[in-house]
Amino acid sequence: MKLEMICTGEEVLAGQIVDTNAAWLGNQLMDNGFEMHRRTTVGDRLTDLVDVFQERSTFADIILVNGGLGPTADDLSAQAMADAMGVELEENLAWRETLVLWAKERNVELNPKNLKQALLPKGAIVVDNPVGTACGFRVKLNRSWFFFTPGVPHEYKKMVIEQFIPFVKSQTNLQTKVEVTKLLSLGIGESDMAGRLEKLTWPEGITLGYRSYMPYLELKLIARDVSKEEQDKAILQATKVLGDGIVARNKGTLAAEIHELLTQREKTLTIAESLTGGEICSQLVAFSGSSHYLKHAIVAYCNEAKVALLDVSEQTILDQSEVSLACVAQMAAGAACTYSKVAESDFSIATSGIAGPAGGTVDNPVGTVVIAVKTGDQVVCQKIKFSAKRSRNHIRDLTTAIAFDMLRRAILGLSPIADYSYIERIESMVYSMKECRDLVTK
Amino acid sequence: MKLEMICTGEEVLAGQIVDTNAAWLGNQLMDNGFEMHRRTTVGDRLTDLVDVFQERSTFADIILVNGGLGPTADDLSAQAMADAMGVELEENLAWRETLVLWAKERNVELNPKNLKQALLPKGAIVVDNPVGTACGFRVKLNRSWFFFTPGVPHEYKKMVIEQFIPFVKSQTNLQTKVEVTKLLSLGIGESDMAGRLEKLTWPEGITLGYRSYMPYLELKLIARDVSKEEQDKAILQATKVLGDGIVARNKGTLAAEIHELLTQREKTLTIAESLTGGEICSQLVAFSGSSHYLKHAIVAYCNEAKVALLDVSEQTILDQSEVSLACVAQMAAGAACTYSKVAESDFSIATSGIAGPAGGTVDNPVGTVVIAVKTGDQVVCQKIKFSAKRSRNHIRDLTTAIAFDMLRRAILGLSPIADYSYIERIESMVYSMKECRDLVTK
Question: Do domains B178-249 and B254-441 have the same CATH topology?
Fold first, then answer.
């Protein structure tokens, strides 16, 4: 079965947005054992749309079309499909009802632009959009089923998962049972990982896939008709050869893993961020229920704030700078029991460093980062050095991920400091909470 | 002139990487007054490559092909082009020399895989790659010039800028001057905006484009051979009809606008976040130099932290809950002069609310948000209500954007509270800093 995608929109073609919908669909298909065959991106011109619909209709079995279902004049997907099929647009009464209801709920008046969204090629089958006003639909032309979805990512994704993938499955007699295990890795490059994994023998039916989304690299073990036991064996051998580099299983980010671990174990967390500037906290707050474990976070971006809000010793900063193990340890300790005004948290995380591009010194060039994790009565910290060629955001993202991994390991009772392939550790240290307090009062 | 792009590689098609090379080219072309006509993405199969080369060769004038020039077995672009043209591959002696020199410099031995990179379709014209071993080339088939570039981003970009764009220019006599003005909007829907703008008369040569990336909607005024005066008139009439909804010009986000305003005016900022959980701070810290104005941020996620770290009155929270104007005003005041341990900041922002999906109450259902901005001796705050159907992240993103806009308006000396089309305001209030302090001590 040949599956294709047609992406529409000047903004996608002209690069005003990066087409993440396209990559996302490729991944969804892979996870379900299907393969994308071709992707075509065109703008908003009616003739270009008609051309591409007619052309691909003789090659593909199923084509997902993304975008162009909105209310504005440049949303022409339905018109173009009607033209390609040689039929008229007609108003879909059920969808018109949906629109009328939608407007009523919001107490707004329906204008002709909104109502345009109920005009579909004659004979089209509606594909419900439970979260928006753009109506999805499908039609058949020549060899192909065309499946139309809106470009708005959350509407599109919901329709793909709930309706498109089941439709694809219904159109094939593929009986293969496909299961995908995703291993989240940190600090290993793709060629390094592939090199290690290709040396191993894999059970029949297992294929490997990689997805790179900084700072992570995800390894997919795609199992087609493979027994649970064989799958477990495959996962085990991958985990063994990749060591500390594998940081989670079937989780998209370490924040998701931390959220689950802290929730399950009913432990509390506090955060003190300098370099990462709120990113650690923000990634956790994205999850509903994070209020159960997250007490507070302090972004002490200037040194004055580190001293005033986190009780870091001024002398430490003068002697060793803010990019020192002693400073970040005191930040973690300070966050955990700020002014003793709040009860001490079970865990805390602290970060400091030079994200660049400016601000580097001889002792601490751009890319130098210190991270501390407070666990029980200990504060474990390390200083690492990223290549100065990495961008500011990349350095912040990597630091966030490593801080989460130190915390993850601490929660699991492992040593918080791990060895990652491409991350260079300069030094590490373990302080007791008492030592941190003593540093402050010195 | 019809310009197209062909992207090759399983990893691009299957979504293992997001194709940023494609978006980048679209932008480069637009900045140079050219337009991309179509983009086709295929995998690594030889037959698929041959098919797409032959097919597009009768439609396009110039086609940039990206990827598949490397040394490995799945790098088949040169072979596929030779097949499509019905010619043989032949070794390019000059490029072989380059490879020999490259190996010599690095003191490595050339293997057959490396030497494969000097095999080009017979008759191909070399396009120099000054930063890598993959040889670019161009050939003509039917109507089209095919221009081959490696997938490695920094090699690709160098070749596009230094060789592809000049080549495109040499093939056309296009003299059009294209200028794009981007107006960032907040709180206006796309159909609403289009409805207002389409009623106006636009100068010849001006076209409108929209780009939606939540929580923003960007309006582009694309001017082809339009005088500066006429462009300014067009911008003015768009700004007039969209009112408070236009929040920045030629900036991708309000965070970028705030970063510039605070930097230019040398004002300081502090932040107290509950609902947004570090996102406001994190968006600013993404910019290098934010340390010049950003003193600290406190994420007081639980009420205990609001009291302990921001001096919010316990009684206020008991009487009016943490989703109240009085609470968020005290948070802003508290952030600005935490414990008087740090000097009072010029501005501060505070947020609180119910992002959901859980946590709603009768008085404060999911989607209820309070935001305060401290400017000088005043704390201006408002309570707004988003649809509970919006996702947790969407509510946090919108809240972040509105908080930034209140701050932006305060910095510019405008009233911090603006009217946005689709955002419902429940109440608003202005406290003096003294009133906030009095609330605490009551």
Answer: no
User: For every one of its 442 residues, what pLDDT tens digit does chain A have, with 9 covering 90 and above?
Assistant: 899 999 998 888 887 777 889 999 998 998 888 889 999 999 989 999 999 999 999 999 999 999 999 887 789 999 999 999 999 999 999 999 999 998 888 777 888 888 899 999 999 999 988 888 888 999 999 999 999 999 988 899 999 999 999 999 998 876 677 788 999 999 988 778 888 998 899 999 898 887 777 899 889 898 888 999 999 999 999 999 999 999 999 999 999 999 999 999 999 999 999 999 999 999 999 999 999 999 999 999 889 899 988 999 999 999 999 999 999 999 999 999 864 566 789 999 999 999 988 888 999 999 999 999 999 999 999 999 998 778 898 899 999 999 999 999 999 999 999 998 888 999 999 999 999 988 876 6
Architecture of the domain whose range is B178-249: 2-Layer Sandwich (3.30)
Which of B269, B341, B270, B274 shows the shortest CA–CA distance to B306?
B274
Closest CA to A205 of A171, A229, A236: A229
Compute the distance between CA of residue A30 and CA of residue A32 in angstroms, rounded to an integer: 5
Q: What are phi and psi of A334, to 5 degrees?
A: -65, -40
Pair type for strands A3-8 and A36-42: parallel
At residue B354, the 3 state secondary structure works out as coil
B274 contacts B352 by C-beta, under 8 angstroms:
yes
- Asked if residues B356 and B275 have their Cβ atoms less than 8 Å apart, the reply is no
Beta carbons of A30 and B14 less than 8 Å apart: yes
* Residue A107 Cα, gap to closest chain B Cα (Å): 11
Counting every residue, how long is chain A?
442
Which class in CATH covers the domain with range B3-170?
alpha beta
Contacts of A281 in chain B (CB under 8 A): 277-278, 282, 299, 301
Domain spanning B254-441, CATH class: alpha beta
Which of B3, B21, B41 should one mutate to test binding to chain A, selecting the residue with the greatest count of A CBs within 10 A? B41
Q: What residues of A are in contact with residue B285 (Cβ under 8 Å)?
A: 276-279, 299, 301, 396
CB B46 within 8 A of CB B80: yes
- Of B408, B442, B74, whose CA–CA distance to B256 is shortest? B408
Taking Cα atoms as reference points, which of B284, B228, B244 lies closest to residue B400? Answer: B284
Residues of B in contact with A308 (CB under 8 A): 338-339, 341-342
* Contact residues, chain A, for B271 at CB < 8 Å: 299
Which one of A19, A39, A281 has the shortest CB-CB distance to B277?
A281
Burial A369-387 (b: 16+ CB within 10 A, else e): bbbbbbbeebbbbbbbbbe
Give B211's contacts in chain A (Cβ within 8 Å): 11, 16-17
Per the rule left: phi > 0, alpha: psi between -120 and 50, beta: everything else, B89 is: beta
Q: Per the omega criterion (within 30 degrees of 0), is the bond before B71 cis?
A: no
Q: B46-56 vs B77-85: helix axis angle to the nearest 10?
A: 50
Burial classification of residue A172, based on how many CB atoms lie within 10 Å of its CB (0-12 exposed, 13-18 middle, 19 or more buried): middle
Please check whether residue B194 is in contact with residue A71, taking contact to mean a CB–CB distance below 8 angstroms.
yes
Residue of B nearest to A113 (CA): B191
Tokens 């999911």, residue? B366
Angle between helices A433-441 and A325-336 (to 10 degrees): 100
Nearest CA in chain A to B275: A285
The three-point CA angle A67-B153-B172 to 5° equals: 70
ipTM of the shown complex: 0.80
- Please state which of the four CATH numbers 3.30.70.2860, 3.40.50.300, 3.40.30.10, 3.40.50.720 is assigned to the domain occupying A178-247: 3.30.70.2860
